[in-house]
Amino acid sequence: MRDGRQMREQTAQHTLLKRRASADQYALMQGPITDEEEVPDSYYPQRMPTSTRRYVDTRGHQVIQQGNRRIVIHDEPPPKKRSHWPLFVCIGMVTMVALWFIIQLLVIWWTNQQLNATYQYPRMYQADEIVGHSDSTDHPTHFIFENLHGQVIIIEFPGGDYTHARVYKGPTLYADNADQTPVTAEFKDVNGDGKVDIVLHIQDQRIVFYNTGTEFKTQ
After folding, report:
1. Among 9, 45, 124, 216, whose Cα sits 20 to 30 Å from the Cα of 69?
2. Burial per residue of 67-102, b for 16 or more beta-carbon CB atoms within 10 angstroms, e otherwise
3. Bridge partners of 64?
4. Domain identity same for 170 and 211
5. 61-83 pLDDT, tens per residue?
6. How are strands ordered across the β-sheet holding 183-188?
7. pTM (whole model) above 0.85
8. More confident residue, 103 or 32
9. Residue 8: which H helix or E strand, with range?
10. In 75-119, where does DSSP find H-type helix?
11. What is the pLDDT of residue 106?
């Protein structure tokens, strides 16, 4: 009897312990996870919040603070522009040469236009003069002085009669643009023999054709 009473007493002393929530969490972490189970947020590691700050320090530099990371932006002055004066000098010289060349072309063109208006082309000069070759005041001798592509030619029409025309060959011009050179003449007694001679003018040259009484000849 005593033994049986002791057994009942021991049985009565056993109490049921309530399972703690931590044990459930531990069991959840230890056990397998299926798609049907709801996983609490506490199961995942929590990310520490981060923030970025921007400010300007006492030196005027922009600073970016992100957690323990600090970035300082140094504002450097813009690089100095290299001097290009040699290039400008070359461009100026080329421009001046080009302008000079264009001006020269314009001067030549204008000069030729003036010569064309005065002496035509080929260059030609005409005059009437009494030289004693079957001529008179009413019928003077007609002269044509022509630069035919660099060859000077004198054509005489005694008394204005083209049927008795005489052609005198003058000098040949070899200068640049020789065909553009005008040829002129004047009439006077050069050697004092009483006859009118021809003085041919080609730029700064002076060539005399002497009157023999019937024609003109050079010495």
Report:
1. 45
2. eeeeeeeeeeeeeeeeeeeeeeeeeeeeeeeeeeee
3. 54, 71
4. yes
5. 777 777 778 777 766 776 677 76
6. 183-188, 197-202, 205-211, 216-217
7. no
8. 103
9. helix 2-13
10. 85-119
11. 92
